């Protein structure tokens, strides 16, 4: 059965369909479009209408547009609407309405994508499961995920993010979840909020979209937890807490053993134990919350806990890999996708607890954490006081904000301070070797992936090419 026919899509959007087409998928990117997709001509850095002809040439079955673009035949297979984004939202709304899936929405300052992927691993063993791709969690990512949802979906997992106040509630109302989960409230996007309480209120607004009789799955270990639970009371939702201080899903222990984390928890169904194939207490917390969400959806929690063992982090989100070098091996913790103070503290704790080989060192390569507002320098410098720093040998810093951490570190831990990731990547072959374990973490715009790729190059027997020092200055310390 097709995902959308021309008639269904026209009825859903109020648009005008040209041709009797049907589509099997929905895409916004001609680089990854598949034959049979509906191409959605969104306006972002460039107007998607510029790529409609290319999409159709690559096999798109139709395109969602606000006008017939230049270079496209007048009788091309199109769905013409007044506004493309509103048309995509309408498709998402119609897909949600026609589907009998049990829906969970996931938000939080940290751990949204990892938790979404945990839920996908847990639920897909119990029925047809549909989930957001990558971090498609914004004003176009949520409706796109919904518009792609097959009719036969049994469980749907919708990730919801934000950068500014007022973004989450409309997306939650579009998704209409039966269960909504908040992973954590932490300093992130502080440029747009006056306090952590403000962030908590925004995260809690995901509960505004709950279906009648919906369930809130909330982190019980936070200073802002009362704000979350008060919102559940306000909207009339049943609340389930998870965490070390929770009454419902209480974490008993999270023991890191090599590449695994062994978790024990007390739940309404009794004591549950599960193993994660990656180290980290923060992953244990998210796994426990995901377990609560599965139970709230009506899935079998025992099967869900067993399925969680096959989940592993996405590349760039805490993936652990071994890089074979002449004379031994180096361990890489690739957490380069994003960073804020809470996720940075969690990653540094994993590094500090990791076992090294022989004379191996624990090395952190850290890039600026963005969107922290006036407190940015203070929040960077404060990383030096984290308990985990006692177990880390060397910290290399990238970016102007990380200069505050570099200055705050004790001299014996102070590595290089570079203006760009490219500058540090050019020197990484001389900074890490056999037996070492290296963490790479920073906000996405800091491009820590260049450091990660340079480490992988060493493992392939090639020295990373010199790339210049960029706009920053390199200091020995």
UniProtKB/TrEMBL annotation:
Entry keyword Nucleotide-binding: yes
Catalytic activity entry: D-alanyl-D-alanine + UDP-N-acetyl-alpha-D-muramoyl-L-alanyl-gamma-D-glutamyl-meso-2,6-diaminopimelate + ATP = UDP-N-acetyl-alpha-D-muramoyl-L-alanyl-gamma-D-glutamyl-meso-2,6-diaminopimeloyl-D-alanyl-D-alanine + ADP + phosphate + H(+)
Q: Which EC number(s) does UniProt give?
A: 6.3.2.10
Pfam families, per the entry: Mur_ligase, Mur_ligase_C, Mur_ligase_M
What is a single cellular component term in the Gene Ontology annotation?
Answer: cytoplasm
| UniProt superkingdom | Bacteria
Q: Any idea where the Mur ligase N-terminal catalytic domain is?
A: 23-86
EC class name: ligase
Give the primary localization class: cytoplasm
Q: From the UniProt annotation, give the residues forming the signal peptide.
A: none
UniProt domain Mur ligase central: residue ranges: 106-294
Q: Record-annotated residues binding ATP?
A: 108-114
Determine if Nucleotide-binding is one of this entry's keywords.
yes
One of the record's GO molecular function terms = UDP-N-acetylmuramoylalanyl-D-glutamyl-2,6-diaminopimelate-D-alanyl-D-alanine ligase activity
Q: In which compartments does the protein localize?
A: Cytoplasm
Q: Name its GO BP terms in alphabetical order.
A: cell division; cell wall organization; peptidoglycan biosynthetic process; regulation of cell shape
- Domain Mur ligase C-terminal: where? 330-443
What pathway or pathways are given for this protein in its record?
A: Cell wall biogenesis; peptidoglycan biosynthesis
User: What is stated as this protein's family in its record?
Assistant: Belongs to the MurCDEF family. MurF subfamily.
Functional description taken from the UniProt entry: Involved in cell wall formation. Catalyzes the final step in the synthesis of UDP-N-acetylmuramoyl-pentapeptide, the precursor of murein.
**Record-given protein name:** UDP-N-acetylmuramoyl-tripeptide--D-alanyl-D-alanine ligase
Native source species: Antarcticimicrobium luteum
């Amino acid at each position: 059965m097709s995902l959308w026919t021309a008639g269904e899509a026209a009825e859903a959007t109020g648009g005008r369909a040209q041709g009797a087409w049907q589509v099997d998928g929905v895409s916004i990117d001609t680089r990854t479009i598949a034959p049979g997709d509906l191409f959605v001509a969104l306006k972002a850095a460039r107007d998607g209408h510029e790529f409609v002809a290319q999409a159709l040439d690559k096999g798109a079955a139709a395109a969602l547009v606000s006008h017939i673009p230049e270079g496209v035949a007048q009788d091309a297979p199109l769905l013409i609407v007044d506004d493309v984004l509103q048309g995509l939202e309408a498709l998402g709304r119609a897909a949600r309405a026609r589907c009998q899936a049990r829906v969970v929405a996931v938000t939080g300052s940290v751990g949204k994508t990892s938790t979404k992927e945990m839920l996908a691993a847990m639920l897909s063993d119990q029925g047809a499961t549909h989930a957001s791709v990558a971090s498609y969690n914004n004003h176009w990512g949520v409706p796109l995920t919904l518009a792609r949802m097959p009719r036969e979906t049994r469980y749907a997992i919708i990730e919801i993010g934000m950068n500014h106040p007022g973004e989450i509630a409309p997306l939650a109302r579009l998704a209409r979840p039966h269960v909504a989960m908040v992973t954590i409230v932490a300093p992130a996007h502080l440029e747009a909020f006056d306090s952590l309480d403000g962030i908590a209120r925004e995260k809690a607004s995901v509960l505004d979209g709950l279906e009648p009789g919906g369930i809130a799955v909330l982190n019980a270990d936070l200073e802002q937890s009362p704000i979350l639970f008060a919102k559940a009371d306000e909207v009339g939702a049943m609340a389930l807490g998870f965490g070390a201080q929770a009454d419902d899903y209480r974490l008993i222990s999270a023991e890191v053993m090599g590449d695994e984390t062994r978790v024990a928890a007390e739940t309404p169904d009794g004591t549950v134990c599960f193993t994660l194939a990656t180290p980290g207490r923060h992953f244990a917390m998210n796994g426990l919350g995901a377990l609560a969400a599965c139970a709230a959806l009506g899935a079998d929690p025992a099967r869900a806990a067993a399925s969680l063992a096959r989940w592993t982090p996405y590349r760039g989100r805490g993936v652990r890999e071994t890089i074979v070098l002449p004379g031994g091996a180096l361990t890489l913790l690739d957490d380069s996708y994003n960073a804020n103070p809470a996720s940075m503290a969690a990653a540094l704790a994993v590094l500090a607890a990791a076992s090294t080989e022989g004379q191996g060192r624990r090395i952190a390569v850290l890039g600026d954490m963005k969107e922290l507002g006036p407190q940015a320098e203070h929040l960077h410098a404060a990383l030096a006081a984290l308990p985990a720093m006692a177990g880390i040998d060397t910290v290399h810093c990238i970016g102007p904000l990380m200069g505050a951490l570099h200055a705050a570190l004790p001299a014996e831990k102070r590595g290089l301070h570079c203006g760009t990731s490219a500058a540090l990547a050019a020197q990484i072959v001389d900074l890490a070797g056999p037996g070492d374990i290296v963490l790479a973490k920073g906000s996405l715009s800091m491009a820590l992936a260049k450091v990660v790729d340079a480490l992988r190059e060493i493992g392939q027997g090639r020295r990373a090419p010199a790339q210049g020092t960029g706009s920053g200055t390199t200091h020995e310390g």
